[in-house]
Automatic annotation (TrEMBL):
One matching Pfam family: Y1_Tnp
Protein name: IS200/IS605 family transposase
Domain Transposase IS200-like residue range list: 6-119
SUPFAM superfamilies: Transposase IS200-like
InterPro entries: Transposase_17, Transposase_17_sf
Lineage, uppermost ranks: Bacteria, Pseudomonadati, Bacteroidota, Flavobacteriia, Flavobacteriales
Any one Gene Ontology BP term: DNA transposition
Amino acid sequence: MSQSLVKNYLHIVFSTKYRQKLIDESIEDELYKYLGGTCNNLGCPAIKVGGYQDHVHILCLLSKNITLATLMSKLKANSSKWIKTKGDAYRQFYWQNGYGAFSLKASEVDVVIQYIANQKEHHRSKTFQDEYRAFLESNQMEYDDRYIWD
Protein backbone atom coordinates (compact mmCIF):
# COMPACT_ATOMS: atom_id res chain seq x y z
CA MET A 1 0.00 0.00 0.00
CA SER A 2 1.25 3.45 -0.82
CA GLN A 3 -0.97 5.23 1.69
CA SER A 4 -1.23 4.84 5.46
CA LEU A 5 -4.83 5.05 6.65
CA VAL A 6 -5.42 5.11 10.40
CA LYS A 7 -8.47 5.81 12.53
CA ASN A 8 -7.88 4.86 16.16
CA TYR A 9 -10.55 6.14 18.53
CA LEU A 10 -9.33 6.30 22.13
CA HIS A 11 -11.18 6.86 25.37
CA ILE A 12 -8.51 8.08 27.80
CA VAL A 13 -9.08 8.34 31.55
CA PHE A 14 -6.75 9.70 34.23
CA SER A 15 -7.07 11.26 37.66
CA THR A 16 -5.57 13.88 39.87
CA LYS A 17 -2.86 12.68 42.22
CA TYR A 18 -4.44 10.87 45.17
CA ARG A 19 -7.78 11.62 43.48
CA GLN A 20 -7.86 15.07 45.06
CA LYS A 21 -11.00 16.96 44.11
CA LEU A 22 -9.20 19.88 42.49
CA ILE A 23 -11.19 20.15 39.26
CA ASP A 24 -13.86 22.55 40.41
CA GLU A 25 -16.47 24.49 38.45
CA SER A 26 -14.26 27.58 38.27
CA ILE A 27 -11.60 25.74 36.24
CA GLU A 28 -13.22 22.70 34.61
CA ASP A 29 -14.40 24.19 31.30
CA GLU A 30 -11.11 25.93 30.70
CA LEU A 31 -9.16 22.78 31.64
CA TYR A 32 -11.21 20.63 29.26
CA LYS A 33 -10.67 23.14 26.44
CA TYR A 34 -6.94 23.21 27.21
CA LEU A 35 -6.72 19.40 27.11
CA GLY A 36 -8.70 19.31 23.86
CA GLY A 37 -6.48 21.99 22.34
CA THR A 38 -3.37 20.07 23.34
CA CYS A 39 -4.75 16.94 21.66
CA ASN A 40 -5.54 18.93 18.53
CA ASN A 41 -2.09 20.54 18.45
CA LEU A 42 -0.51 17.08 18.64
CA GLY A 43 -2.54 15.89 15.64
CA CYS A 44 -4.93 13.86 17.79
CA PRO A 45 -8.31 15.53 17.20
CA ALA A 46 -10.31 15.78 20.42
CA ILE A 47 -13.92 14.70 20.03
CA LYS A 48 -15.10 15.16 23.63
CA VAL A 49 -13.35 16.14 26.86
CA GLY A 50 -14.97 16.16 30.27
CA GLY A 51 -14.77 14.67 33.70
CA TYR A 52 -15.49 15.34 37.31
CA GLN A 53 -13.75 16.70 40.39
CA ASP A 54 -10.90 14.19 40.47
CA HIS A 55 -10.49 12.87 36.93
CA VAL A 56 -10.86 13.53 33.21
CA HIS A 57 -12.09 11.62 30.18
CA ILE A 58 -10.79 12.38 26.70
CA LEU A 59 -12.23 10.92 23.52
CA CYS A 60 -9.88 11.55 20.64
CA LEU A 61 -8.38 10.07 17.51
CA LEU A 62 -4.78 8.93 17.95
CA SER A 63 -2.59 10.30 15.18
CA LYS A 64 -0.54 7.88 13.11
CA ASN A 65 2.45 10.14 13.85
CA ILE A 66 2.51 10.05 17.67
CA THR A 67 2.59 7.30 20.25
CA LEU A 68 0.06 7.04 23.03
CA ALA A 69 2.87 7.43 25.59
CA THR A 70 3.98 10.69 23.98
CA LEU A 71 0.42 12.00 23.82
CA MET A 72 -0.12 11.22 27.51
CA SER A 73 3.18 12.70 28.60
CA LYS A 74 2.49 15.96 26.79
CA LEU A 75 -1.15 16.14 27.89
CA LYS A 76 -0.30 15.70 31.55
CA ALA A 77 2.87 17.83 31.65
CA ASN A 78 1.44 20.77 29.71
CA SER A 79 -1.91 20.85 31.50
CA SER A 80 -0.30 20.48 34.92
CA LYS A 81 2.01 23.44 34.24
CA TRP A 82 -0.89 25.46 32.87
CA ILE A 83 -3.29 24.82 35.75
CA LYS A 84 -0.65 25.84 38.31
CA THR A 85 -0.77 29.35 36.82
CA LYS A 86 -4.48 29.63 37.66
CA GLY A 87 -4.09 30.59 41.30
CA ASP A 88 -2.91 29.48 44.70
CA ALA A 89 -5.53 26.72 44.95
CA TYR A 90 -3.81 24.91 42.05
CA ARG A 91 -0.13 25.38 42.92
CA GLN A 92 0.09 21.79 44.19
CA PHE A 93 -1.85 20.29 41.27
CA TYR A 94 -0.51 17.02 39.89
CA TRP A 95 -1.90 14.20 37.82
CA GLN A 96 -1.71 10.57 38.93
CA ASN A 97 1.17 8.69 37.29
CA GLY A 98 -0.89 6.21 35.30
CA TYR A 99 -3.79 6.35 32.90
CA GLY A 100 -6.25 4.12 31.11
CA ALA A 101 -6.67 4.15 27.35
CA PHE A 102 -9.38 2.11 25.71
CA SER A 103 -9.92 1.65 21.98
CA LEU A 104 -13.36 2.07 20.43
CA LYS A 105 -15.17 1.09 17.30
CA ALA A 106 -16.67 3.95 15.30
CA SER A 107 -20.14 2.69 16.27
CA GLU A 108 -19.32 3.29 19.97
CA VAL A 109 -18.28 6.93 19.64
CA ASP A 110 -21.72 8.49 20.21
CA VAL A 111 -22.25 6.41 23.36
CA VAL A 112 -18.90 7.55 24.78
CA ILE A 113 -19.62 11.19 23.91
CA GLN A 114 -22.82 10.97 25.95
CA TYR A 115 -21.05 9.13 28.75
CA ILE A 116 -18.44 11.89 29.04
CA ALA A 117 -21.11 14.61 28.82
CA ASN A 118 -22.99 13.04 31.75
CA GLN A 119 -20.11 12.73 34.20
CA LYS A 120 -21.62 14.88 36.94
CA GLU A 121 -24.83 12.88 36.92
CA HIS A 122 -22.96 9.60 36.68
CA HIS A 123 -20.81 10.37 39.71
CA ARG A 124 -23.74 11.06 41.98
CA SER A 125 -23.95 7.30 42.46
CA LYS A 126 -20.52 5.92 41.47
CA THR A 127 -16.99 6.78 42.61
CA PHE A 128 -14.13 7.23 40.19
CA GLN A 129 -12.52 4.07 41.57
CA ASP A 130 -15.65 2.02 40.83
CA GLU A 131 -15.97 3.59 37.39
CA TYR A 132 -12.34 2.87 36.53
CA ARG A 133 -12.49 -0.73 37.77
CA ALA A 134 -15.58 -1.23 35.58
CA PHE A 135 -13.62 0.04 32.53
CA LEU A 136 -10.76 -2.31 33.29
CA GLU A 137 -13.06 -5.28 33.75
CA SER A 138 -15.19 -4.59 30.67
CA ASN A 139 -11.97 -4.37 28.64
CA GLN A 140 -10.72 -7.63 30.19
CA MET A 141 -7.60 -5.96 31.56
CA GLU A 142 -5.69 -7.61 34.35
CA TYR A 143 -4.73 -5.26 37.17
CA ASP A 144 -3.60 -5.21 40.76
CA ASP A 145 -5.78 -2.91 42.86
CA ARG A 146 -2.78 -2.13 45.10
CA TYR A 147 -0.99 -0.30 42.30
CA ILE A 148 -3.61 1.55 40.27
CA TRP A 149 -4.31 4.29 42.83
CA ASP A 150 -0.83 5.82 43.35
